[in-house]
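Why do we bother with a discrete structure alphabet at all? Because it lets us treat a fold like text: something you can write down, compare, and reason about line by line. To make this less abstract, here is a complete entry for ABC-2 type transport system ATP-binding protein. Read it the way you would read a sentence in a foreign language you are learning: slowly, and without expecting to understand everything at once.
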Amino acid sequence: MSAAGGDAIVVSDIRKSYGDLQAVAGVSFTVAEGEFFGILGPNGAGKTTTLEIIEGLREPDSGTVTLLGENPWPRKVKLLPRIGVQLQASAFFDKLTAREQLETFASLYGVGTKSIDDMLEIVGLSDKANTREDKLSGGQRQRLSIACALVHDPDIVFLDEPTAALDPQARRNLWDVLREIKARGKTIVYTTHYLDEAEILCDRVAIMDKGTILAMDTPAALVRGLDAPAHILLEHGVLPADEVREFVGVDEVTDDGVVLTIITRKPAPVLGALAERGTLDGLQVRTATLEDVFLDLTGREYRA
């Protein structure tokens, strides 16, 4: 049974400080049952502290959290079987195989081992069941960590940067695992630095910085709200820049000698004009992405 109204998580004005540092400064949001909810932000934005408060690992200085209808702090034993947590740094038992790791985690939750083969299959480790954890690749260890968080069939899964430090192939493979978890009806709350990943996987995202939420909505709605122009790219020399500037809908044209870039908020008439001139081959259209929204809200300066 989830929280009333279909909300698995209700966060209301939580705050947490460490000395003079205000890590979380009045964060509020809800997560619906079965939703894939992302928390995005630069380093030091307060993402992990927010997750730890929701999970019951930290006590907020003020504010309230309701997790499956319960206050997670102080930690409630009856909540633990209903949540799964995969932390940034995964810890495994020494010298155990992938199967033995899952069997051990299952025993800690007091559940049987009949679902272990299913878990290994879901995360793509069936062929590594008898391989020791320290012999697995980084991507395989990440998938095993998620399997350990799922072995007791929790209602909510918390994932803190689950694809960090993975190569592109391993990261894409893990996306399939996350989609499978969602398809099983689980509520997922996760943090990531990969904006393309969040745009593809999340139902909604909250963008945080300096302990507060700057924006929250579906990725598509956030991108639409940015009202950024489209960039149409043509190979240099296909059309003269002066001719392109006369097209209806063109805001700006630049030509660096390699690529001619057309900036427009009305791409349809511009593309129509290009089609009339037979110049669509090799053309690229770049529209705004969630990364553009993120940078617009949080700035472009480097964060250590």
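What the structure line is telling us, in plain words: Confidence is low (pLDDT under 50) at residues 1-5. The CA atoms of residues 265 and 276 lie 20 Å apart.
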